[in-house]
Amino acid sequence: MAVDSDTGALDDIRACLAESELVVTTVPSGAEAIRVLEFGKVDLVILDIQIPDVDGLSLLQYIREHFKDIEVIMTAASPTVPDAVLAIKRGAENLLVKPLQPDELRFAVNRLVGKLNHRRELMSASSPPETYGLIGISDGIRNVIERIERAAAINANVLIHGESGTGKELVARAIHYGSDRAAARFVPVNCTAIPDTLIESELFGHVKGAFTGAKDSRAGFFQVADGGTIFLDEIGDASLNLQGKLLRVLQNKEIHIVGSSNVRKVDTRIIAATHKDLVAMVDKNLFREDLYYRLDVVDIYVPPLRERPADILPLVRHFMNQYAQEMGLEPPHFSDRAMENLKNHSWPGNVRELENLVQRLLVNADSGSLDVADLPKTMRQGVRPATEGFQTLATLEAEHILRVLESVGGNKTQAAAILGIDRKTLREKLKRIVETHQPG
Amino acid sequence: MTIAKLLLVDDETAFLDAMARRLKKRDFDVFTAPSGMDALDVLSQNGEKIEVVILDVKMPGMDGIETLAEIKRKYPLIEVVMLTGHATVSSAIDGMKQGAFDYLMKPCDMAVLVEKVNTAASKKRQQEEKIIEARMKAITTRRA
């Protein structure tokens, strides 16, 4: 679309682009330009800086804020330096001085068309297969999808196990929304997050005045999920007290609301998930065997990323596209060597780790391509250099902090407690570690 | 107002000294360089510290645009304000596309310059803060 108050200039643009395969719309004012932008499919705007109703630079800003995929070339008869600076700052690709030189215009337009095509290719060709939000082509993930479909078709309880970051909640959601309970609620509950004293009121709700501080009646998770699905995450971390309460609901399909003498029937499907070995916990009497058998009717194992290396690249592409789009960036290109390193990494944090890495690479990317040097140190190949002589205290401290952090699963509060420093100090130290160890 | 660390680059040494003095009076840390090459030297020695470069466009040898491109390649986070006596529209476009933070015309008003430098410096700090946050997040969650 070309926007200019001068019909002669519009004719020139039309003539100049006649041989291209572009569909050219011309409008004489900003108001009409906005109307066309809102209804039409515009990829590229050639915008004069002086149009009658709005200032061209304001319209440029409007386009940038509302249509971030549209590219803009500005034109001006006698631009000033501040105009030019502002145009580029606001995201115009170029500013051409009038009278327009056909070659110059064609060159600028062709460049942008190339850029648009490139972006589209990246978007479409590289969108990996996605089912229920699960991305991948490996047998491992196909098996998971197959089991999700089988579980969705019946009404039995499900136990999902797999390492942290493999997407257990995604699987649970897929089962719920694929089942005939989809219209009712899906209620995720993190079993580690419920304090023991509040278990009953959290799960089953309470009536007004049931205990000190119970100012209002409150529905518990089981009431909210009535007719739907309750997702018990980290069931392996549930206290024996909580396990007992859950078992009773599972057996009787009824709940006692705290402070009320009534018993209420509930119809809730339970999907539980854990990264722990429940069988071993049953052996050690840490997990109730009767509860285990009630939960483990359908069993779904979500394999860790290192067991399905074929999915690594599709996942990288998926998150790269997703976050690049969110941040309004071009997805960068990975060098073959960088790809190779990603494939060979063991991904202890699984898909979540990969997602974080991609996000971080995008934030740090200075150019359109990413190479091995941009990856974190742990992901670069080659042997770690042997430490010569003694280390500095700072290095030792850094390593120790990271090791402690690792052992508590990244929980800064816990790590700070073990290290005997407060959380703020830990944060400061981490910040310094990150700064001195950059990049990666 | 925050105090920023600057590098002034201009081949007119009289202008360079005068500017440096005026900026120092306003509590800026000022480094100076009389050419593009010298500017890169100063950066390679003090790259960590310098937040904003004020760069003359027209200089003999390596000109402002070339110097800008090189600075942005080596230190993408450093913000560069171009300063010029006789800017052309095309050089302004070139500079902005190479990643300059802004363009100022000589003679420039001190207050405007100070304000630009401060915005540029705070942009750089925000950018760095973001990166540190992302790295911290990556470290802590990678270990989760």
Could you give the topology of this structure?
The complex is a heterodimer of chains A (440) and B (144).
Chain A: E1 2-3, H1 7-16, E2 26-27, H2 30-39, E3 44-48, H3 56-66, E4 71-76, H4 81-89, E5 94-97, H5 102-125, E6 130-131, E7 134-135, H6 139-153, E8 158-161, H7 168-178, E9 186-190, H8 199-204, H9 221-224, E10 229-233, H10 240-252, E11 254-256, E12 263-265, E13 269-274, H11 278-283, H12 289-295, E14 298-301, H13 312-327, E15 333-334, H14 336-344, H15 350-364, E16 369-370, H16 393-407, H17 412-419, H18 423-436
Helix pairs in contact in A: 6-7, 13-15, 16-17, 17-18
Chain B: E1 5-9, H1 13-25, E2 29-33, H2 36-46, E3 52-56, H3 64-74, E4 79-84, H4 89-97, E5 102-105, H5 110-142
Parallel strand pairs in B: 1-2, 1-3, 3-4, 4-5
Describe this structure in words.
- The complex is a heterodimer of chains A (440) and B (144).
- Chain A is an alpha/beta fold and 440 residues long.
- Helices cover 46% and strands 13% of the residues of chain A.
- Chain A is built from 18 helices and 16 strands.
- Chain A has helices at residues 7-16, 30-39, 56-66, 81-89, 102-125, 139-153, 168-178, 199-204, 221-224, 240-252, 278-283, 289-295, 312-327, 336-344, 350-364, 393-407, 412-419, 423-436; strands at 2-3, 26-27, 44-48, 71-76, 94-97, 130-131, 134-135, 158-161, 186-190, 229-233, 254-256, 263-265, 269-274, 298-301, 333-334, 369-370.
- In chain A, helix 6 (139-153) packs parallel to helix 7 and helix 17 crosses helix 18 (423-436).
- In chain A, 33% of the residues are buried.
- Residues 382-388 of chain A have low confidence and may be disordered.
- Chain B starts with a strand and ends with a helix.
- The mean pLDDT of chain B is 84.
- Chain B has a single domain (5-142), classed as Rossmann fold.
- In chain B, helix 1 links the parallel strand 1 and strand 2 (29-33).
- In chain B, helix 2 (36-46) packs parallel to helix 3.
- Chains A and B meet through helix 4, strand 5, helix 15, helix 16 and helix 18 of A and helix 4, strand 5 and helix 5 of B.
